[in-house]
Amino acid sequence: MTENSPTDFTTAKSDPRTAGWRSDELTPPDGTAWDLLIIGGGTAGIVAAKTAAGFGANVLVVEAARTGGDCLWTGCVPSKALLAAAHAAADARTAVRYGVHVDGVRVDFGEVMTHVRATIETIEPDDSPDTLRAAGAHVAHGRAKLSSPDTAVIIDSSPGTSAGDGVRVRFRHALIATGSSPAIPPIPGLAEADPLTSDTIWSLTELPQRLLVLGGGSIGCELGQAFARLGSHVSILEEAPNLLPREDPHAASLLLAALADDGISISNGARLESVERRDNGWRGRTSSGSTIPFDRVLVAVGRTPHTADLGLEAAGVTSDDHGHVVVDKQLRTSNPRIWAAGDVTGHPQFTHVAGVHGSLATSNAILGLHRSVDTATIPRVTFTQPEVAAVGVAPDQAGAHSGLTVRTIDHTDLDRAVTEDIRRGVTRLVLDRRGRIVGATIVGPRAGESLAELVLAARQGLRARDLATAMHAYPTYGDGPWRAAIEHVQSQLHRSAPRSVRKILASLARRRAH
């Protein structure tokens, strides 16, 4: 999702840094203006480019670093590959609960990182400039800066080239998809400790003995658990009262217990106030007065949009106080020619959001449609063990909305969870007065997959009875949502029975009166 800065983590075979400047790609086929200029070659930009090219539009993608963005190089792909290795190590250590004894589990961090690099290299061609060109888009390696409401200047940023004055191009529409990068808070001493982020942690060649993680959101929990399971002593510091502050507290408590089982030290409700050098490493002092020793620190406390030096003011594009590009429901900016998608807009920072919004913005721009974004049913998944997956209204928020009901199935009673002896989990549905599914939270193995049908249900306004009457395979973790729906339907039937009886009696009474 981001227009990333180069790192030494891996070198792609089709890395645009080695492809060189192709000035011929800056001239639109009609010689006048590009139908769509896309600034940024991450997920939003890639999906937008393929969508626009599929409509027959003349498309130019300008990327300053390498196509693929955060998701491919430093986000979803490497983190999930790392988690796969970490979970495999944990599964081997705990297999004894099934009567399977795995002796001498050993983690080779170098080989783990080789697996991560291989995963990136396998997926990278799908996001490469060559693939974009094959789809019908033009790709230029450079930095684009908007210079007027319908023009931009593109400066070659290939290695070994001078900046120069750049090349001016005109566009009928433009899409800003420059993404974001990890934020580093101004904590005294933190910069001197050479903090890692989700962008730079992949440069590690040795496993840190002691890792401090700032931030207990999805990124902090995922990477914290991964490094703990690979052998680091991990401490997580979260300023909010709970881990995963945006999720249901009950779900967060289940994850907290799992992380504690992994040996992770967790401090909630406290912030890092200072960092100082010690003879044997570093020490962080918290707002609660405690100290945390560490060798490396990973900062995962939010991201900053890439909008600096984009020329937004010259193009008449408004940004908010945090630097996000302001868009309407159709993803159009204050300049009717210019659209935006992905992290740069301030919408939830997920790859699936960037991809869908990139396609939607492009369809609106090229075809003149007026499709609006749906922010009510955006799925979100934290890929820890157990996974935490959610959509829509969180169960703890139901009380603030009139007429909402929560149905809960504890996985201690879920047959598939019992067979696998993974009973720390829960499924919770949030339903409105009409029984429509407006939210859900699932904690457990592959919760993200179980969530899929609930996202569809919330999107389509389906009711609990629609889910309850659809046959589900047994035994699966999908039994959780199904059983919650069945329980809701049964409770409604029991509640409605007395009213039905009263209606019959009232009818009989009227007949007697006649």
From TrEMBL:
A GO term, aspect molecular function: NAD(P)H dehydrogenase (quinone) activity
Domain FAD/NAD(P)-binding residues, every copy: 35-358
Positions of the UniProt region annotated as Disordered: 1-27
Positions of disulphide bridges: 71-76
UniProt entry keywords in alphabetical sequence: Disulfide bond, FAD, Flavoprotein, NAD, NADP, Nucleotide-binding, Oxidoreductase, Redox-active center
Annotated signal sequence range: none
Cofactor(s) listed in the protein's UniProt record: FAD
Binding site for FAD: 80, 178-180, 343
Cofactor binding note from Swiss-Prot or TrEMBL: Binds 1 FAD per subunit.
Biased composition (Polar residues): 1-13
Domain spans labelled Pyridine nucleotide-disulphide oxidoreductase dimerisation: 378-482
Residues that bind NAD(+): 215-222, 238, 302
Similarity section: Belongs to the class-I pyridine nucleotide-disulfide oxidoreductase family.
Annotated protein name in UniProt: Oxidoreductase
Source organism of the structure: Kribbella qitaiheensis
